[in-house]
Amino acid sequence: MLETSTMLATVQQVISDNQNKPGALLPILHGIQDALGYIPDDSVPVIAKALALSRAEVHGVISFYHYFRTTPPGKHKIQLCRAESCQAMGSKALETHLKNKLGIDFHETTADGQYSLDAVYCLGMCACSPAIQIDNDIHGRVNTESLEQLLSNLEPAA
Ligand code: FES
After folding, report:
1. What is the pLDDT of residues 3-16, one digit of tens each?
2. pLDDT band at 67 (very low <50, low <70, confident <90, very high)
3. Ligand 1 pocket residue status of 129, Cβ below 6 Å
4. Does the keyword Iron apply (predicted)?
5. Is the CB of 122 under 6 A from ligand 1?
6. 9 Cα: distance to centroid of ligand 1 (angstroms)
7. 66 closest CA partner among 121, 28, 27, 105
8. Who's near 13: CB < 8 A, 6+ residues apart?
């Protein structure tokens, strides 16, 4: 976990880099998530003040887009495609399997910090549905058996 002062310095830098762009809020939110892996609650009042918005307005945008996280991601990031093609080819079974196995819902991280689970809406692998991204690798035509194999291949992150 980052020190608060380090986190806020990063947030301030991202704001400074994007503040004068048209529609600056989204570039700022993306920049913070790229830099920190999530958008800390403590950054919301800083963003709101810089853009002369209310905290509720900033929160509203963060919660509208599923992409944005408000908690730190796990050491292994699992992103399951829930878009149409993958739904038609069985991603719901993968979703149920993952939620039961990890004991978490979408946008959550396991208590040991090892895994986070997120929904995404198309990984560009529709022809190989259902698709899943684990860390930087995208896998297609996944079923519960191959998913188990993929998970068992992951080294416990230090
Ligand atoms: S719909 Fe899942 S990869 Fe495109």
Report:
1. 888 999 999 999 99
2. confident
3. yes
4. yes
5. yes
6. 37
7. 121
8. none
**Which class is domain 76-153?**
alpha beta
Q: Residue 143 is encoded by which pair of tokens?
A: 């079923």
Does 81 belong to an annotated binding site? yes
Q: Where are the domains of the chain?
A: 4-64, 76-153
The position carrying tokens 């919301």 is 44
Hey, which of 87, 91, 122, 139 would you mutate to test ligand 1's pocket, going by the most ligand atoms within 8 Å of its Cβ? 122
Query: Which residues 6+ apart lie within 8 Å of 113 measured at CB?
Result: 72, 74, 75
Rounded alpha-carbon distances, angstroms, from residue 138 to 9, 26, 88, 151:
33, 26, 18, 13
| Euclidean distance between CA atoms 75 and 125, whole angstroms | 24
Q: Give the HSE-up count for residue 4: Cα atoms under 13 Å, Cβ half-sphere.
A: 4
pLDDT in the model for residue 1:
59
